[in-house]
Amino acid sequence: MEKTTNQNQIKPRRTFAIISHPDAGKTTLTEKLLFFGGAIRLAGTVKGRKAAKYATSDWMQIEKERGISVTSSAMQFSYNGIHINILDTPGHEDFSEDTYRTLMAADSAVMLIDLVKGVEAQTIKLFKVCRMRGIPIFTFINKLDRFGKDPLDVLQEIEDVLGINTVPLNWPVGMGKDFSAIYDRRHQCLELYRDGERKRIEAGERGLEDPALKDCLEPALYDKLREDLELLDIAGDPFDEEMIQEGMLSPVFFGSALSSIGVQTFLEQFLEMAPEPRPQKSSVGYIQPTDPQFSGFIFKIQANMNPAHRDRIAFMRVCSGRFERGMAANHVRSGKKIKLPQPQQFLAQERDILEEAYPGDVVGLFDPGIFRIGDTLSEEGTFEFEKLPQFAPEYFAKIINLDFSKYKQFQKGIKQLTEEGTVQVFRTFMDGPEELIVGVVGKLQFEVLEYRLENEYGTRIQLHHLLHHMARWVRSDKLVDPANLRGLRNLCVKDQDDQMVVLLEDEYYLDRLKDKYPEITFHTSSND
Ligand code: GDP
Fold first, then answer.
1. For residue range 46-60, what is the model confidence (pLDDT) as tens digits?
2. How many Å apart are CA 253 and CA 273, to the nearest integer?
3. Does residue 252 sit in the same domain as residue 104?
4. Cα(468)–Cα(127) distance, integer angstroms
5. What number of CA atoms fall less than 13 Å from residue 241's CA on the CB side?
6. How far apart are CA 458 and CA 410, in angstroms?
7. Tens digit of pLDDT for each residue in 94-142?
8. Rounded Cα distance, 249 and 297, in Å
9. In a shared domain, residues 329 and 405
10. CA distance 77 to 52
């Protein structure tokens, strides 16, 4: 078939992830976005994934039918002709490296902040990854229907804690039970939410003084709005499209996902500003989404936890060209040409089969065990996309193989799970016999490790959890004596490539080492 440009498929595509701390309202917001896009009919106060009524993405269908736990999945829907991919970033107890990796497949991020709680720990971690990638970050401050921090203070907190400038594009009128309107600064109009309806009142030439607008609000709320807006006009950052695209300035929106206030406005303005699929770095320079040849990379592998269905799904972001169902592509790492079957093809009901996909889209591929995180697939080329970064583990445990006759399987399992990125493995090399230590980003990964070693490799293990919460790769121009780094509280280990790593309980111990050995630098991963 002759190759045609896919430009008209790229322009209307937006692929983003929502980053937040658990309970900020990500599920509620996602559900409302799907509702506005017509992807689900029922948007109420349905609680998350536990409810059968919730969401209707293809993946959830698979999850239901096959018992596959599909977490970092993509939900697709359309709004006003824009094709949207929301990448799900697992939070709560299933927070893991996958959550970070998903951000590698996103072109922009929506940072969701709870007005009552402000900037929280998980948001900070995810924000840093987005910052590292330089993708635009849009902020939605949620739960204005509750009494929380002053909006100006939250903006200050974002700037202080995260170090990003903000430009509020709308401003809340009131808070808690008084919250029923937002002022759209860009379009200069008031959005009133009454009886489930959204009503826009344009500010005429007289701006805020316009009686049509002024009369809609209680005097006290009106005065506060005017005061806040005046302050923002004087002291706030100006709107700067370039800075937004570079991820240096975050447009801020206020609202309540639960009460559907400000959500649709947010969606519309976000879609206007969010970038279309970006070029991706590779070994031969940037690969443009408009390149006619299909290419993509694997950012996540989901193993089936159900022993009756051992298959795995590799999630691929399409980066260029056009993906067609069942097509063949070069698996660059192995040098083989392979057929790319999708997991949906194995289902009885095939109505949700994806026939084609374009840059920005996520495709789930059936994985017979050949894919690794970061693998490149390319229709013709042999280039490789930039390696996905490794993220510093935060939980550690000594791992003991309980069944010595299964030592080979144990080793094979550990090797496989390390390659997949489920765990990072370290070994002790001082004081007595070598011991294996596994490090993970999220605690649930320990359970996955235990479960899979038993079910897929037939071995039983015991984990001894350690008190350490940080791993730092040690580098210096001079020879480092590991005995200096080891201490009552620190552990000196080696990673798979024999690089020296120190495990620490917290920042305090790291600072002590830094003070004592200024010639050593401490890195959060082996490749930074
Ligand atoms: P997630 O953990 O980030 O996915 O958060 P959820 O969407 O599950 O929301 C956590 C809790 O906050 C639930 O009880 C929601 O009903 C509630 N919630 C979400 N958005 C709002 C909001 O705008 N206002 C209020 N008052 N509660 C909200």
1. 333 333 333 333 334
2. 13
3. yes
4. 23
5. 6
6. 8
7. 677 888 888 999 999 999 999 999 999 999 999 999 999 999 999 999 9
8. 29
9. no
10. 19
Both 251 and 340 in one domain: the answer is no
User: Which residue has the CA at smallest separation from atom 24 of ligand 1?
Assistant: 143
Kindly report the average pLDDT of the chain as a whole number: 86
> Is any ligand 1 atom within 6 A of the Cβ of residue 102?
no
ipTM: 0.99
Token pair, residue 77, equals 């829907």
Determine whether the shortest distance from the Cβ of 30 to ligand 1 is under 6 A. no
59: left (phi over 0), alpha (psi -120 to 50) or beta: alpha
Ligand 1: centre distance to CA 26 (Å): 7
Instruction: Indicate the residue type of 349.
Output: Q
Among candidate residues 345, 378, 411, the one where a domain is terminated: 378
Question: Which range marks the domain in which residue 18 is found?
Answer: 8-170+238-273
What atom in ligand 1 is closest to the CA of residue 92?
2
Which residues are within 8 A (CB) of 48 and not within 5 positions of it... i.e. 6 or more apart? 27, 54
What is the C-alpha to C-alpha distance for residues 503 and 491, in angstroms, rounded to an integer? 5
Burial (CB < 10 A; 0-12, 13-18, 19+), residue 275, is middle
Tell me the CA–centroid distance for residue 118 and ligand 1, in Å. 14
Question: Residue 8 has which token pair?
Answer: 């008209």
Count the Cβ atoms, other than its own, within 10 Å of residue 286.
12
20 lines ligand 1 (CB under 6 A): yes
Let me know: does 295 contact 28? Beta carbons within 8 Å.
no
DSSP state of 32: H
Report whether residue 26 contacts ligand 1, using a CB cutoff of 6 Å. Answer: yes
pLDDT of res. 120:
95
| Residue 73: predicted pLDDT | 64
515 in any annotated domain: yes
Residues 347, 351, 352, 357, CA torsion sign: positive
Q: Are residues 265 and 303 in the same domain?
A: no
H or E segment and range at residue 330: strand 328-331
Helix axes 26-36, 263-273, angle to 10 degrees: 80
Whether 257 and 286 share a structural domain = no
Q: Using CA positions, which residue lies closest to atom 11 of ligand 1?
A: 23
